Amino acid sequence: MIGIAGRLWWIFAQTHSASAEQAASAGEQDIGALWNEHMMAEVSDASHLLIPLINREIALPHWPPLHVGSFAIDLSPSKHVVYLMVAALLCAATMIWVARKTHGKGAERAPKGLANVIEAFVIYLRDEVAMRNIGKGGERYVPFILTLFFFILYMNVLGLVPFGASATGNVGVTAALAVLALVAIEVGGLLHIGPKAYLGTIVYIPKGLNWFWSIIMAVVMTPVELVAKLARIFALAIRLFANMTAGHLVILSFVGLIFMAGAAEGVTRYLIWPAPVLMAVAIMLMEIFIAFLQAYIFAMLTSVFIGLVRHPH
Description:
By secondary structure, this protein is mainly alpha-helical. The protein has 9 helices and 4 strands, in the order ααββββααααααα. Helix 1 (about 1-25) packs across helix 2.
């Protein structure tokens, strides 16, 4: 609850100061347009960071682009890149600490507190997500599935803390995660079932057809199978990106209603503003659940897709 209150207070303070400055410079400009502009700035990537407590923005370094042929690739850090790295460091630090607590020298027989909670997550993801959906040989993929879950979870949660940002609200980040999942799915399936059986997952020819209809089915169904493989990864990337971005936009929309209520006259404003505050708190609580849910869905669907390729039947 302290974290929720802190996040909402920060959003309100930032948007209030930004709206006040913009309104003063814009004169009679509609506050709704100013609010929409600030909402998009809040969920978009940026080349600066807002520092807590001092409430100052610092510019991130800008590096010369890397030229690959006729393409220029900008590798300069951005707000989402910084929080992506923070999530990676927190994930690594947490897992190393828990591993030492449970398996290191002088490890406790039954871990307590946070270590016990994370161990429960690990066991559940291993048994009920990876092994159940991948099947025989799934133990090789357990570290990958666990990494996906906890890494995405940390990125999601960082977007709910004051001054934080959710890297999964960037489609580039979710697309990169989906591409890694695609490599694990297809390469793992190819190595497990062999080139001939793997080709059967792309070139679909039902048994019992003569040579003519086999060719027709191969020509018609091969593009469909290829699109289906790519559609799975596209769905992974867009689902995670859309859910995290939509949640932040809904919260910002409810906070915006507070300013609309402030524009009312007399007693009306005091009757209106509690409603958007309560709705914003409710959405923040739901966002915590969604942060866990989306990490779980990404890990589970990746496990399902790996199992489908490894066991085509």
